[in-house]
Specification:
Elements lengths: L1 E7 L1 E5 L5 E3 L1 H12 L2 E9 L3 H9 L5 E6 L3 E8 L2 E8 L16 E5 L8 H8 L3 E5 L1 H4 L5 E2 L16 E5 H7 L5 H5 L5 E5 L5 E5 L2 E5 L9 E2 L2 E2 L38 E6 L2 E6 L4 E6 L17 E7 L2 E6 L5 E4 L7 E3 L8 E4 L7 E4 L4 E4 L7 E2 L7 E5 L1
């Protein structure tokens, strides 16, 4: 395993003292030195500040790739117990995809100090072929000078390529309502870690409900066929660059699982291993039947080039195309079209809810993506499936 930390270093003036080096590259390098893993740091600052920033970072013994910026990020910080008050004195230049290149790394942590640090295209380049984690302060910190006043006005595209999202408690409270499993999963990231200061942390991951500071869950995790016996997808890589083999969760007949209600949104997904019944709200597989097949609806006639498949409900038609973005949507029976799914991987299947044409399910190679607004915004489900062939709602 090789780890890369990518982010701007900062000059922090803490409680009136002279400026000192700060930012994730410095503190992560201190931790990585103790872990004895192969690692590299990609750090950015202004050339005039290198003479005071480089020595303390280089002394930690982790290789450093330096990137130039017109200015070095800078903050004034005051503490009141565990709570801090911050002023933004300077903001570094955004990272480009070329600057963020870290060849050979299998895990990358992107550490923004402001919302402008990592554009979506740079995060997509960082995530290609590896796992990408993101420090969530880059979602809530606007790129402006003066008192730091976090807000939730971030571009959802920033999370499109992220496998793991790290949030401080106050950042999570800005972004979601509550720290329960369903709230955290609405962020659309497979794994979320919420730090609670001296009280520990909450971890939400696809294979378990959120846990606070490590205690076991109150009921067993349930899999098709019973608890503690997770089936796995075939070897290989998923569309997000994550290793295949994630467990498929949940069945109402297994001990410790709740029953389903009429309000649950259920999808049928034809996979290479059989028919999966998926709860789109809980992001769990309720059943996987190797002997069943999906009842495929007739494909609507679509006069478009490079169409892979299409679905229709009323006057709404959604076509999967061999292009970028991979979707075209019409709300007038095919007379006019708009593209959709910018940033989504190549697709294989699509379905529209017969009860609500704004609800669209899109299937990539082994991941599902859900839109509730007619294809304007998409949320990637955390679970990973065997190769997807068809979907229905």
């Amino acid at each position: 395993m090789s780890v890369a930390i990518v982010g701007s270093v900062s000059l922090d003036r803490v409680e009136g003292r002279p400026p000192r080096i700060g930012g994730c590259p410095y503190y992560a390098a201190r931790a990585l030195r103790s872990l004895h893993v192969r690692a590299v740091i990609a750090a950015k600052c202004a050339a005039p500040d290198r003479s005071r920033i480089l020595p303390p970072l280089a002394q930690l013994g982790i290789p450093v790739l330096w990137r130039d910026s017109t200015s070095t990020a800078a903050f004034t910080i005051d503490y009141n117990g565990e709570h801090r008050r911050m002023f933004v004195d300077a903001i570094a230049d955004p990272w480009t995809a070329e600057e963020a290149r870290v060849p050979g790394a299998t895990w990358v942590h992107a550490a923004p100090l402001a919302r402008s640090d990592f554009p979506p295209e740079t995060l997509a380049a960082l995530a290609r072929g590896r796992r990408l984690s993101l420090d969530g302060q880059g979602l809530v910190r606007p790129a402006r000078l003066g008192p730091l006043e976090p807000d939730a006005d971030y571009d959802p595209e920033l999370l499109r390529s992220v496998s793991i999202l790290k949030l401080a408690e106050e950042e999570a409270e800005l972004l979601v309502e509550g720290l329960d499993e369903r709230a955290l999963r609405r962020l659309g990231v497979p794994e979320v870690v919420v730090t609670l200061g001296s009280r520990g942390c909450i971890v939400s991951a696809p294979h378990r409900p959120p846990r606070r500071d490590g205690p076991p869950p109150s009921s067993p995790t349930c899999w098709p066929g019973g608890p503690h016996e997770p089936p796995h997808a075939a070897d290989g890589e998923g569309d997000s660059g994550e290793p295949r083999g994630s467990p498929l969760r949940g069945t109402p007949g297994s001990p410790g699982c709740r029953g389903k209600t009429a309000s649950d949104v259920i999808a049928h997904v034809q996979t290479a291993d059989g028919l999966a019944v998926v709860d789109l709200e809980d992001e769990t597989v309720l059943e996987l039947d190797s002997g069943s097949t999906i009842e495929r609806a007739p494909q609507p006639p679509v006069s478009l080039p490079r169409v892979i498949t299409a679905a229709a409900t009323g006057s709404t038609i959604v076509a999967v195309v061999d292009a970028k973005p991979p979707l075209l949507v019409s709300h007038d029976a095919g007379r006019t079209w708009r593209d959709s799914g910018r940033g989504l991987p190549a697709g294989r299947a699509v379905a529209i809810s017969p009860d609500d044409p704004d609800v669209i399910l899109y299937g990539a190679r082994n991941r599902l993506y859900l839109s509730r607004d007619g294809g304007r915004f998409w949320r990637g489900l955390a679970l990973e499936l065997p190769e997807i062939e068809a979907v229905s709602l």
